[in-house]
Design brief:
The protein has 487 residues and is mainly beta. It has strands spanning 2-12, 27-36, 42-53, 56-66, 71-82, 85-95, 100-110, 113-123, 126-135, 144-155, 166-178, 181-194, 206-209, 213-222, 230-238, 243-253, 256-267, 285-302, 306-321, 327-342, 345-348, 351-364, 369-381, 388-400, 413-422, 427-436, 441-453, 456-463, 468-475. It has two domains: 2-181, lipopolysaccharide transport protein A fold (Sandwich); 254-422, no CATH class.
């Protein structure tokens, strides 16, 4: 080897697989002392060693790099940064071509999550930490933390060249720590994270409903992120109507997923209040799926302006009285629904308008069928990202006959208004109302107030349908720059 002392800049070119744009970029190495093999294929850097390749930077006390294989090893005060990701640890093994590596005694900051582990393996969209813990609270004494045998962080799909702004965190055999004390066992847990709206909660959502009585909601995910088959179980334990819930087994496919559902006493009123509902039923019934199979298509582009959302389902269903175990109807059904929506366009500063057309067709084992048409126009005023006001007009028309109440249009014409308003840094509110234009009365309303306290959000919500009051606790991603590089 040829020995070069003092500060040194070395430029290497690594192989460039077709699937990786990162590996086509040149690699630069600097250090106090750099040793280079005679054929320039192997480099050993000692003392304040720094390797850079595009947005990737690796710092360590000692480092080696192999031009032929793309293998990089680093030891001592290792720090790897790449876009929004930052990893720290004692030792690092990383392949520049495959963009995969492993770091020991590590700490990671990514997607607003602070993740620690004895050993962490990582790639551009996946992190797996062993004997690990995570929190979104910066500082030496976090308000909460979750420990687990393994913690997996999966970044959301993003366009090439852009960083993900959301992800999903899954753990196995974990425990929730709150203010330094172990509180709740979490055998398996999965939650969405990111700097986008969060709908999932850290703790079970609990409350009181007129029909359910006291209730608590449980959510459990099965299968590792990225697996060919995953499952999710949503349960509601109630004092008046027993156990209610939905088990869904799904397999991702292009632009969506195929799934198998089994539901027990599922309430139509449990669904989120939104304008993109083709049927729009407000029936006070419970539904069993025994089972149901289907395929969902989520926002498939149709040219530069339009997006398609569609679903095809087939299964056997039974419908029950909401207060008794009396079956109101039982039948098989094959149904298809679709909505084509345009990209909202700006009328005036901060004011946009958008529209959608769609419908559904259902065939029943009773020999009947039903067709529904759907149209929506939405006007939104959004002076800021967190303050939004929208008003939607929805028109539905139906032909034919359905044996089920949950499958019947009960609001042919409605106005749906939504307000999202941040009162101050600690409080924000959300109000959604569905107003029946035919019967001239409010059919459903949601009022929610959210309090931000450090790295957690506490939400108190009231729902008109079911006359329910609930409370949930959400995670707040740590903001960029809130985590320092101190050990």
């Amino acid at each position: 080897m040829r020995l070069v002392r003092h500060s040194w800049l070395l430029l290497l070119f690594f192989p460039s697989p077709a699937h990786s744009q990162q590996s086509t970029l040149p690699v630069r190495v600097t250090a106090d002392v750099v040793e280079v093999s005679a054929d320039f294929t192997f480099t050993c850097a000692t003392g304040r060693a720094v390797l850079t390749q595009g947005a990737l930077t690796v710092r360590a006390d000692r480092m080696t790099a192999d031009r032929k294989t793309g293998e990089v090893t680093a030891t001592g005060h290792v720090v790897l940064t790449q876009e929004a990701r930052r990893l720290k640890g004692e030792t690092l093994a990383y392949n520049l071509n495959a963009q995969r590596g492993e770091i020991t005694r590590a700490r990671v900051f990514e997607e607003g999550v602070i993740l620690r582990g004895e050993r962490i393996t990582f790639s551009p969209r996946l992190l797996v930490a062993h004997n690990a813990s995570f929190t979104t609270c910066p500082g030496a004494e976090p308000h909460y933390a979750v420990s687990a045998e393994t913690i997996t962080l999966t970044a959301a799909e993003t366009p090439p060249g852009r960083n993900p702004t959301a992800g999903r965190l899954t753990l196995r055999h974990g425990h929730l720590w709150f203010h330094g004390k172990k509180r709740i066992a979490l055998p398996n847990y999965s939650v969405s994270l990111g700097r986008q709206q969060q709908e999932e909660v850290l703790l079970p959502t609990s409350g009181y409903g007129h029909k359910d009585g006291l209730f608590t909601g449980l959510n459990r995910a099965f299968g590792r992120p990225g697996a060919r088959v995953t499952a999710e179980l949503n349960l509601r334990l109630t004092t008046l109507r027993g156990v209610r819930g939905l088990l869904e087994v799904r397999r991702p496919v292009r632009q969506g997923a195929v799934y198998l559902d089994y539901a027990r006493r599922e309430s139509v009123g449990d669904t989120e209040v939104e304008a993109n509902q083709v049927i729009g039923s407000t029936a006070d019934v419970l539904v069993n799926r025994e089972p149901e199979v289907g395929e969902r298509v989520r926002e498939r582009p149709l040219g530069p302006r339009f997006k398609l959302t569609a679903e095809v389902t087939a299964g056997n269903y039974s419908e029950m009285d909401s207060e008794a175990d009396r079956v109101l109807g039982r039948a098989g059904r094959i149904a298809a629904s679709a909505i084509v929506a345009d990209t909202p366009h700006e009328l005036l500063p901060h004011i946009t308008v958008g529209y959608a057309l769609g419908g559904s067709e259902a065939l029943y084992s009773t020999g009947t069928e039903q067709t529904i048409s759907y149209a929506r126009v939405t006007v939104q005023y959004a002076p800021t990202a967190e303050n939004r006001y929208s008003l939607s007009y929805v028109n539905r028309a139906s032909w034919g006959e359905s044996p089920f109440h949950f499958d019947t249009v009960t609001i042919p014409q409605e106005l749906q208004g939504e307000v999202r308003y941040r009162v101050n840094p600690a409080w924000r509110v959300r109000v959604v109302e569905r107003y029946d234009l035919v019967h001239e009365r409010t059919r459903d309303m949601l009022v929610a107030a959210t309090r931000t306290a450090h790295c957690l959000e506490y939400t108190l919500a009231w729902r008109l349908r079911g006359r329910s009051l609930s409370i949930g606790v959400n995670l707040i991603p740590a903001p960029p720059g809130s985590v320092t590089d101190d050990p």
